[in-house]
Write a structure and sequence with these properties.
Distance between the termini: 38 Å
Order of helices and strands: EHEEEEH
Structural class: alpha+beta
Largest sheet: 5 strands, antiparallel
Number of helices: 2
Radius of gyration: 16 Å
CATH class: Alpha Beta
Helix content: 10-25%
CATH architecture: Roll
CATH superfamily: Hotdog Thioesterase
Strand order of the largest sheet: 1-3-4-5-2
Length: 132
Amino acid sequence: MKTPELGREGRYVVRTGPEHTAQSFGNPGVVAISSVTLIAAIESACGDAIWELHDEGEATVGVGFDLTHLAPAPAGAEIEARARLVAVDGRKLDFEAEARHGETVLMKGRHRRAVIDLSRFLERDTMRSPPS
């Protein structure tokens, strides 16, 4: 990966639906946007900040999450996640991030991603399908 400069920013927007609610992830009756959805949006915003810096065959994966879910949002909400690169430690990249619905901050905190060699990562035993 080309060395990223601190302060790089990324953004990701998603228009949510019923499939993004906590109920759809197994929490019956909770039709608010799930933490899983907000975390995925934050991961995508972090990726947006650095995609263009990957060398051939590289990717990043999430390896650390220090995020707090602060407020609910309804299905149908447009969620905007923003991330800013705040630290680089070798192949580890740290971001400050938040997800919002309008002016309401839904989730905020820090997220760490690691630069990986994609082919080696996918060859790992843990990535193989279990026997049928």
